[in-house]
User: Fold this.
Amino acid sequence: MFETINTNVNKTVAFLETELETFNNALQHKVIPKKTYLLREGEICDFEAYILKGCIRSYYIDENGSEVILQFAIEDWWVSNIASFNDKKPSKIFIETLEDCEVLLLSTANKEILLDEVPKFEKVFRLMVQKNLSATQNRLITTIAKAAPEKYLDFMKQYPTISQRVAQHYIASYLGISAEFLSKIRTRLSKQ
Amino acid sequence: MFETINTNVNKTVAFLETELETFNNALQHKVIPKKTYLLREGEICDFEAYILKGCIRSYYIDENGSEVILQFAIEDWWVSNIASFNDKKPSKIFIETLEDCEVLLLSTANKEILLDEVPKFEKVFRLMVQKNLSATQNRLITTIAKAAPEKYLDFMKQYPTISQRVAQHYIASYLGISAEFLSKIRTRLSKQ
Assistant:
């Protein structure tokens, strides 16, 4: 159960067996059915979730009541709402499973204990957040500055497997376009 | 010269005098005139800059050749391009001073040495990146989901002092609207 997550954290820092055990003891294994909320708007996010299996989305509901997908996450990714987790503020976003999922949850309290006991994990989490920041900055640039076909190509590059796994209207919501327009873009690109 | 930065890092972790000295020795003090590039598109970002004095912007040039401002940074903020810094990839963005600036630069090499010598700095940088991620996620939500007047109010909340310091067309560029439209929004809001 801990094989992939341990391989993942060992990539950046070399840990002792005992340190990985402390880490694994801090994690809570959970099986979560499809279409279940891990976090709702207004709640305080008190976890970071490592995905063993499945696909999860985070989304926001805009002023017109439309869902705007901020991020997809699949196997070997972490998902959380760092703004809420960090500052203990109510979340602006929802986090929901799109498939049946298996996750390892690290709670705020357990994370603090882990970092006290094995400070070497600071580096792991710093690099993880840096990677996430880098992806979010990219998403921001794409959102602001690119036309829909380029947005779609960027999406396919960042998430090569997701378009086979989730309904097309979710991808359209991520791209900020209608499902019809997405379909037109796909047809046009497939002809090129 | 190191007073504010040391106070800043001491907020989250208690450092010894000698550890702060190691930190300060890793920093390079630089005076940079207004309208100078710290980073250009295509270059690899090899620094994180702590601002002692002045205002800096990071921006992107979109497919139509228009500048899109991603971030403003002022005193006591850090500015960098984490995507480029992290993965040693060419930057997609520009970082430019808007005022005469004084900064403390931490190079990639010095950061690595510092983290080896004083691993307690891992926490400082993790929390710094988390704060940045949280701000970037907020910016993304605002960009995608809010109308221009709300964007402007969000901007004023996040950057209460910047609208007095930079030309209005920079703020318009940050909000993704024309300077004329920004002026209309300001007039309308001032009447409310």
